[in-house]
Specification:
By secondary structure, this protein is mainly α. The protein has a domain of 65 residues. The protein is 47% helix and 0% strand. The protein has 5 helices and no strands. Helix 3 packs across helix 4. The longest helix has 11 residues. It is elongated. The termini are far apart.
C-alpha cells in the first residue's frame, strides 16, 4: 500500500500531506543562543578592529557553527556590513 493511502482512508483529503507530530529535525541550540547572537551583533564591536562581524567571527565568539549564525542573521534580517552601530560607538568614544 502506498504511504498516502492510509492517511487518506483515515482523514480524507485533509490527512494527505500533513506531517506527523514529532517528525522532523529537533532544535538543538541551547536556550538563549539566538538572542545572544542578535544582541552581540547589534551591541559589540568585532575583535581585531574589524569593521563588521563575519559569520565565522561571531560563531567563534558564541560557540556555534557559521551556518547557524548565518541562519539567525537571515531570520532577523541582520546585515552586519550595513549596520552603523560601530560608527555610533566610535563617535561616543
Amino acid at each position: 500500500m502506498r504511504r498516502w493511502r492510509s492517511p487518506f482512508v483515515e482523514s480524507g483529503v485533509v490527512g494527505v500531506g500533513t506531517i506527523a507530530k514529532g517528525r522532523g529535525r529537533k532544535a538543538w541550540l541551547p536556550a538563549g543562543t539566538v538572542s545572544r547572537v542578535v544582541e552581540l551583533t547589534l551591541t559589540e564591536e568585532p575583535p581585531g578592529g574589524a569593521t563588521h562581524w563575519t559569520t565565522r567571527t561571531m560563531a567563534d565568539r558564541v560557540g556555534v557553527g557559521k551556518d547557524t549564525v548565518a541562519k539567525i542573521w537571515a531570520d532577523h534580517e541582520l546585515k552586519t556590513w550595513k549596520l552603523d552601530v560601530f560608527v555610533q560607538a566610535q563617535q561616543r568614544s
